[in-house]
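User: Structure tokens for both sequences below?

Assistant:
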Amino acid sequence: MRAGFLRVCDANAKLDRKKKRAAVTGRRCAVLAQSGAPQLTRRHDQAHTGQTQFDKTLPYVSRWEKVDDYTVRVHTSEPAPTLWDALGREPLVPKAWTIKNGAEALNERPVGTGAWTLVEWKRKTSMSLERNDTYWGSAPHVKRLRLQVIPEASARLAALRAGQVSLVDAVPPFDAGVLAREPNLKVVSGPQKLNCRLYLNGRLKTQFDSGGKDGLYGDTKTRLALAHAVNREAIIRKIFQGYAIANTSPVATVSYGYAAQEPYSYDPKRARALLAEAGWKDTGRGWERNGEALVLNLHYAAKHYGQAFDETTAAVAEMLKDVGVQVTLKPIDFGTILQITQKGTLPYNGGFTACRTSNNLDADDFLRDWTAFTLINWSPYPPELMAAYAAQRRELDPAKRVRLLADLQRQVRDWTPVVPLYQEVKVYAHGARVTGFTPLTELHMDFRTVAVRK
């Protein structure tokens, strides 16, 4: 689980993750404070080309037409069934004010139509907000809201028990059961669009800084063998105390178009058989193929996603060793993980564990992971899967498209570009007097319906 995010959401804003700043924007959802670290997303750096953000995000939009003061007609160069999702994620800001004061000023003094107005922001410490009495939607129940950054889980829980805060997030799994037995507290949880995976280097030597060697994990049977070597149910039961989901689909369970897939059974015997079918020879000291040992240099961002994630990575390493894979754990910081993946310097026999999140509603955002060379694409789609991906992106009939999405998820499951580990269930705790709080599936919190009984 990730260490301490404390945030509020108007149901509408956007966090500039690079600068760790927030902008409350019209009819968007705002992440207003952050004490933890961001997750891996599919975004990758683009050189400045003079394009607007809309041009980069929506390349298939050919023209914007103003119909009247309240209507815009969007013209596209091709069928765009996910346009609704993309448009719903773009921030709306006051044009004249933003042009006059600049984006930096907007980051410092957010201006928008959200449910809250920013009163005070002490970076990395706290944020104070007041109810926006001109809000276009239903008015929030509480007048004032304060977000306090408390990075350490034990300190957050101590503050909750002492009544210093009303609600905390990122409750460690082992603490959740204890808190649930305390009469003055309540534990709530919900699945999140956060899939944690083992990524393996399956790129061709021309697709990364390879030293002349193809990625060691370029064949499906080897990757599938590793998938069958992992005991997900034991990890979820022992490490997460049940607060996680074993999800075989590449798409989060709460995304539009998700289709459940046949689980990868925990079957070490099957894993060994698949390695043999892939051409690996059991030497008694490990596996070899064409003089190459089956080695995995397993990188992970220590203390970035939380203790449970680190424990999961270590457990996975031991499970892979049990079927003969020679695993070396490489704990590094998150910044180094980003450099390795962005620059393509992952070793040919390397891999890494990471969590991939999405604020999109559509399954397409997860399924496009293997379409272009980004930091999380280390096993690019073969032509047949690229064709299937393109087909669902052009299908405008909702029922037909859902069927195409389901079939693509099945094909990705069988192709096994990554080893899925778990989907996160986020755990919160709050005082018994707090009412109306419901966890969201995104990296946000919505306080509009929250109240505190006297």
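Moving on to the next sequence.
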Amino acid sequence: MLLVAAAGHALLLWLSMKLGLSPAWQRVAASPTSLAVDAGFFLALSVVVGVQPVRLPGRAGADTTVGFAVDYACLVIFGPAVGAWIVVISDTVLLWRSNGLRRIFNNGMLILSFVGACGVYRALGGNYVFWERLLLDRPVAFKSLGLALIGSAVAYFTLSSLLISIAMALWERSSTLGLWVVSFRWVMPRSLALAPFGLLMAMAYQVPGLGIFAVFLFLVPLIGARFAFKSAMEMLDVHRQTVYALSNALEAYDVYTRNHSELVTRYALLIGRELGLSAPRLEVLEWAGRLHDIGKVRQDWEPIIRKPGRPSEQEWRVIRQHPVEGSRLAEKMEFLPHTAGKVASIVRAHHERLDGSGYPDGSEGQAIPLEARILGVADAFEAMTAKRAYHRQRPLEEAIAELRRCAGSQFDPQVVETLAALWERGELRMEEPSEQSPLLPTPIGGSEEAP
């Protein structure tokens, strides 16, 4: 992060010195009011459209604005030195409450991204509106700059999002590409869709006699775009909260399974990260963990779920259909874009066993998805270490030993040893034991699973 900040600020200083020594700056110095007023206007506009960021779904503290349009207009109008100063000052104002490290990283990231996009724009034949008007007294012919305009917009988004993803990956010790896919796939099409707004602002700016007065008219559609963007992100967040509500619905039936899905998901994600799963696969694993028991949420199953003691054999046969029911429900969840089918397959397979004796399909070995094997271990571990009406609560050491005993037949040995390593390093955060009802100790011949 410090390297990005240092490189960005050094680059901005060098560009500023280069501009200050250029013949173009002598023309500006002769009549500085025009640049000061125009740059100040775009700075104010950037602050106004960025003052209420839109929260992104799925990542705490992550947000975005519709300021991409204003940034892109600054790129096309002012070029690297002046445009980068506008972007950096605006970002500093908007992040004044953030910690210093975040501010200087953001500034460096924006400078590098903005200047890189300017380089692409110039390399593909683009010219800057302000300097063309000042030095040559002519407008920029945007009709012939299609490739430069598209290339610079894509470059700006890609560089900024990639630098952020690299920083997050270093912090979280995960895949840069995976984090980029998870964190920015929602944002990319919406951000690039704002580039035409920026281009229209630049075209209006160079109309003789109008300038910044014409650009001011774009404030209303930008605010409208912000609310549309916010509505889309809020809908995604509603979908996420719906999954949380569904995963908690079953736990409302039974005090013994309270927080079960939350804990299983937590353990599964810890194992998945330790095994090096990519961020997209971890996202799928999280959805599957939340929904793995959702097939039990049926009115006719409630008496079985609420029943004290161990279910009868007939009741077990009914309960063992819950992966099938859960898979059907997950597959119909269209608000899990690009993941519903994968989530459904993991939910269906999370009670399969390596030796083929699991249910519902009797799959074995590598035919069982790795995410389902992870979920199976996490599910069994939580079931053994939590209170249930049909078995006693086991100490952590005993639960790990039981998982190891059943590794190779019921559980994936690599997944079991990964969980054991996490426990030995003290990285498993456990639920506080509940004191709500007595335990019913039950001897078991194999490892206990949540049914």
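User: Anything stand out in the second?

Assistant: The beta strands are 54-55, 63-64.
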